[in-house]
Specification:
Order of helices and strands: HHEEEEEHHEEHE
Strand content: 15-25%
Low-confidence stretches: none
């Protein structure tokens, strides 16, 4: 039995198959006719502070600290949780030279701005500074032992504090 005879013998099945083929064709053609939408850029956030860690706020990680935030210099804040309270365990910023190098790198590689943190490797050790809230001085990351002390954050009872993600 040929296709034509099969269609004539089963008209209802033929209609269902034809509708299915039309639906498949439509579903494959319509997306090609629609305007292309740009992929929505996912913006990652981090915590920042303008008052030595007493308070903190969320902002895009694309900000290179220190940066101006409502007339004050903002630095990156690493927030931790102990019990029900959240607090800034330590802060991070770049030296003026480090910030300049990062900005030059980002200007030459604009696609990288969508991936915060990738630019840090070149300046991480020698141009990144950290400190705890209340410390008088910023510590260069090249002083590894001191940096480990600063970035090992404990809860008030001495137990390890848990990092908070923005």
């Amino acid at each position: 039995m040929g296709i034509r005879q099969h269609i004539n013998a089963n008209p209802k099945l033929s209609i269902v198959v034809a509708c299915g083929l039309i639906a498949i064709a439509t579903l494959s053609i319509v997306p090609a006719l629609l305007p292309k939408q740009q992929a929505q850029q996912y913006e990652m956030n981090g915590f920042y502070t303008v008052d030595d860690g007493r308070t903190f706020f969320k902002a895009p990680l694309a900000n290179i600290p220190p940066f101006d935030h409502q007339g004050q210099q903002a630095v990156r804040a690493y927030v931790f949780k102990a019990g029900d309270s959240e607090f800034v365990g330590y802060m991070e910023q770049f030296t003026a030279e480090g910030k300049r190098k990062i900005e030059e790198f980002l200007a030459a590689n604009p696609q990288v701005r969508a991936t915060p943190g990738i630019y840090k490797t070149e300046v991480e050790l020698y141009q990144t500074l950290v400190k705890r809230p209340g410390d008088a001085q910023w510590t260069p990351c090249s002083l590894e032992r001191r940096v480990v002390e600063i970035t090992t954050v404990k809860a008030p009872d001495g137990s390890p504090a848990k990092p908070v993600q923005p």
